[in-house]
Specification:
Layout (H helix, E strand, L loop, with lengths): L6 H52 L1 H5 L12 E4 L17 E7 L3 E3 L2 E12 L4 H5 L6 E8 L4
Length: 151
């Protein structure tokens, strides 16, 4: 009696190993794709929250006269976020693959409360690496009200 594996046993084990390897590679590919999508989604939300937080810290009066003294890093309208070697660490390099649009709404008086609405859109630049990975959403939109404080 000979010991060892027959050819059929080896072929069956190869099929099982191939199916297991294919499943592992599929899970790895899916998790990589989802991790990159989540990273870019988080970056887009952070880029949208930044001007809102800056405008909130300056307050309503500053925002009401924003066209007289605009901030260089937060222009009104669509702009591509830039990266500079002079100021490393401000944004990751991937932020340059996004476009941010800041819209300051008209002054509104609901009752006795004065407020201005800020809307920020962040979207990937078409045909960029981010646009390829960004599978769940085309853009991020955040809105906030800046209310005039008590006098």
């Amino acid at each position: 009696m000979k010991s060892g594996f027959s050819l059929i046993e080896l072929m069956i084990s190869m099929v099982f190993l191939s199916v297991a390897l294919l499943a592992i590679l599929t899970v790895t590919s899916f998790s990589t794709r989802e991790a990159m999508d989540t990273y870019y989604q988080f970056l887009a939300v952070s880029l949208a929250k930044e001007p809102i937080e800056v405008f909130k810290s300056f307050g309503y009066q500053f925002l009401n006269d924003y066209d007289k003294h605009p901030l260089k890093n937060y222009p009104i309208g669509p702009t591509v976020i830039t990266y500079s070697d002079d100021s490393p660490g401000v944004y990751p390099l991937e932020a340059t693959m996004f476009e941010r649009e800041i819209i300051i709404g008209p002054e509104s008086e609901e009752g006795k409360v004065k407020a201005r609405k800020i809307t920020v859109f962040v979207r990937p630049i078409p045909k960029s690496r981010v646009a390829a990975w960004f599978s769940r959403h085309n853009d991020v939109k955040l809105e906030s009200l800046i209310v005039d404080g008590p006098k």
